[in-house]
Amino acid sequence: MSKPVVAIVGRPNVGKSTIFNRIVGERVSIVEDMPGVTRDRIYSSGEWLNKEFNLIDTGGIEISDEPLLTQMRQQAELAIQEADVIIFIVNGREGITNADEEVAKLLFRSKKPTVLGVNKIDNPEMQEQLYEFYSLGMGDPIAISGSHGLGLGDLLDEVLKHFPEMEEEEYDEDTIRVSLIGRPNVGKSSLVNALLGEERVIVSNIAGTTRDAIDTPFSVDDQKYVLIDTAGMRKRGKVYESTEKYSVLRALKAIERSDVVLVVLNAEEGIIEQDKKIAGYAHEAGRAVIVVVNKWDAIEKDDKTLQQFEQKIKDHFLFLSYAPILFVSAHSKQRLNTILPMVNTVAENHSLRVPTNVLNDLIMDSVAMNPTPTDKGRRLKINYATQVAIKPPTFVLFVNEPELLHFSYERFLENRIRATFEFTGTPIKIYPRKKN
Ligand code: GDP
Ligand code: GDP
């Protein structure tokens, strides 16, 4: 099930990224807590009135060095194509500009639901600046102040009204949804072709096409899969589609629709920052992950190469310590036949349910082995544990004081759970909840 997508468009400096950050909240994401790159984050999830959605800041996708009007047009086209609802931001202190009118025209013609936010209305006295924006023909303008956090609730109320009905689940429960993500040229399409070309693979010729992805359903023996297409695998040729950030965006959408994500690395090039970022999204989205090192044929090897590479991956992807690593070659077909069996295994682990009594015995044993943390004389007490969800397996601990569950103790419990149950390839989540 994919969440509705909301895109923010508007001229530079009207406050798009300020508003984006307000809406997605302060959550520091593990992949993006690097200094000085706020604008790096162009895609994140938000929530309003219990409705989740994905938000794109189109301003963060630098499309080309074209003149402003051309860039605005491309931005608007991207939003029209990718989003269910568009938030169009203008600057209430500057009034309407040509670029605003141009964007308004495009949005109007597209008939995409659009909500007009007039930003930088920092105090009630400035409300009258709103009225001129009626002439854009985009309905009632909503006064907001991104920097003061005003009016965003009204804006989001309006956005929510335009959400489409939730899409039906496209594939049945036992179909494993798989995507391959990674930088351009790591060999994703070669791997896909090689996988689909394997002997026992039966590719269904009805390509299930959703709004913006090309899916390839296939089966091996009795197991059904669907391959979710990502950027770079099929090049389509719009200007923005060749930009790096856009391809990340596509990858994120594919991740969201997947059960299992194959993070593809190029053995020849090792690991770079971008690999980490992409893999981090898969982890954060709670998907099962397999690291696939491709082009293993292309490098010189001795008896230590594999272990060294494995260690390098572990060092770089600390957050993915649960992910199995496969060394393959799309060209020589080396170990290609290990991929789908591994997909089956991690998919199974991703939806594993553990018996409550075994879980509770395990937690009590763990506590006896390593006493719970204390703070200012108060000690964490875990009364009861239960698994509340799968995909990924999610556990709730009922405790006396949730804030006493420190990260390190949570990590300890996670390791104990992993040592007892088979969770290879899947993240697991642990949440404390207050209950005496
Ligand atoms: P973007 O280029 O559209 O993403 O705009 P930014 O979010 O980077 O904001 C551009 C400038 O406008 C920054 O200096 C912000 O601090 C400022 N700004 C953003 N929102 C507001 C607002 O509500 N009121 C005022 N006065 N300034 C704002
Ligand atoms: P994508 O952009 O990630 O889809 O990558 P492609 O599948 O288009 O592959 C990029 C390049 O790497 C092409 O020239 C491929 O022939 C080459 N390539 C892909 N897989 C392998 C492999 O296993 N070994 C070697 N040596 N080259 C490969």
Biggest beta sheet summary? 7 strands, mixed
Mean model confidence by pLDDT: 87
What's the oligomerization state? single chain
Tell me the number of strands. Answer: 18
String of helices and strands:
EHEEHEHEEHEHEEEHEHEHEHHEEEEHE
Read across the widest sheet, the strand sequence of neighbours is 8-9-10-7-11-12-13
Instruction: Tell me the fraction of residues in β-strands, as a range.
Output: 15-25%
Low-confidence stretches: 27-39, 207-212, 231-235
Structural class: alpha/beta
Kindly provide the radius of gyration, computed on alpha-carbon positions and rounded to a whole number of angstroms: 24 Å
Outline, from the CA principal axes?
Answer: globular
Instruction: Give the count of helical stretches.
Output: 11
Per the CATH scheme, the topology name of the largest domain is: Rossmann fold
Integer tally of domains: 3
CATH superfamily of the largest domain: P-loop containing nucleotide triphosphate hydrolases
Family: Belongs to the TRAFAC class TrmE-Era-EngA-EngB-Septin-like GTPase superfamily. EngA (Der) GTPase family.
Subunit structure: Associates with the 50S ribosomal subunit.
Protein name: GTPase Der
Keywords: GTP-binding, Nucleotide-binding, Repeat, Ribosome biogenesis
Secondary-structure blueprint:
Elements lengths: L4 E5 L6 H9 L18 E6 L2 E7 L10 H15 L2 E7 L6 H13 L3 E6 L22 E2 L8 H10 L13 E7 L6 H9 L4 E3 L11 E6 L2 E6 L15 H13 L3 E7 L6 H12 L3 E7 L10 H12 L8 E3 L11 H12 L5 H14 L4 E2 L2 E2 L2 E8 L4 E6 L7 H14 L8 E6 L2
Parallel strand pairs: 1-3, 1-4, 4-5, 5-6, 7-10, 7-11, 11-12, 12-13, 17-18
Antiparallel strand pairs: 2-3, 8-9, 9-10, 14-15, 16-17
Helix pairs in contact: 2-3, 10-11
Bound molecules: guanosine-5'-diphosphate (2 copies).
